Amino acid sequence: MIDFHFWPTPNGWKVAILLEELGTPYNLIPVNIGKGDQFKPAFQAISPNGRMPAIVDHDVTGAPVTVFESGAIMFYLARKTGRFMSSDPVLEKETLEWLFWQTGNQGPMAGQLSHFVNYAPGDHPYALERYRNEYDRCAGVLERRLEGRDWIVGDDYSIADMICWPWILIAKPLSASLEDFPNVTRWRKAVKERPAVQRGVDLGKEFRRDEAPDEEQRKILFGQNARHIAEQTRRG
């Protein structure tokens, strides 16, 4: 059994989709990021960066294995199960390139766009333009990659597709458009039609709240600095 520490966000959906595609039994443990669950010592013992998703794999010999960071989790599960990542060294290398690209480029840029669209008080035209352009740049990278191919790596759907897809799914709520990216639009639709993907995105939807975060939640989500970390360490 796997303990899956999760909250319904694009980063959480990545691993939720993979677990549903694998059909792996898991125990869902909500990490309410608006209430600060990610900063509790018990969770930070699993995820030192204080971010979900994270997993604890109990189906191992010896002590349970903890894994944090979405890309590392997906690589770990794909390698362990032998599914959704080719055993061919070159294709495995390409899969890792796209996992690193997503976590180092697409994810952070889309996340910053989401922050200024959904959370930051006041008007921030420069920041919106900056991160919308970066979102489009990353969509363009995927557009070129998907020219003449169905999936990001090789001939098969893989964890490379799963990790890149959630931030593309929500382009419209992020005030971005896929109109200029027909290959990405086609690929987005193909992934969305998979039943396991739909189950992954629906996971924990009862946790969601439509209202904007209040000031206290903003402090929890975005007010962390070195002093806060030091205080949490002392309390832990």
SSE diagram, text form:
Elements: E1 2-6, H1 10-22, E2 26-30, H2 41-44, E3 54-57, E4 65-68, H3 70-81, H4 89-118, H5 125-145, H6 159-169, H7 182-192, H8 195-202, H9 215-222, H10 226-235
Parallel strand pairs: 1-2
Antiparallel strand pairs: 1-3, 3-4
Characterise the protein shown here.
This protein folds into two domains: 2-83 and 202-235, Glutaredoxin; 89-198, Glutathione S-transferase Yfyf (Class Pi), Chain A, domain 2, CATH 1.20.1050. The protein is built from ten helices and four strands. It has helices at residues 10-22, 41-44, 70-81, 89-118, 125-145, 159-169, 182-192, 195-202, 215-222, 226-235; strands spanning 2-6, 26-30, 54-57, 65-68. It has a four-stranded mixed β-sheet with strand order 2-1-3-4, covered by helices on one side. Helix 6 (159-169) crosses helix 7 (182-192). The longest helix has 30 residues, at 89-118. The protein starts with a strand and ends with a helix. The model has no long low-confidence stretch (mean pLDDT 91).
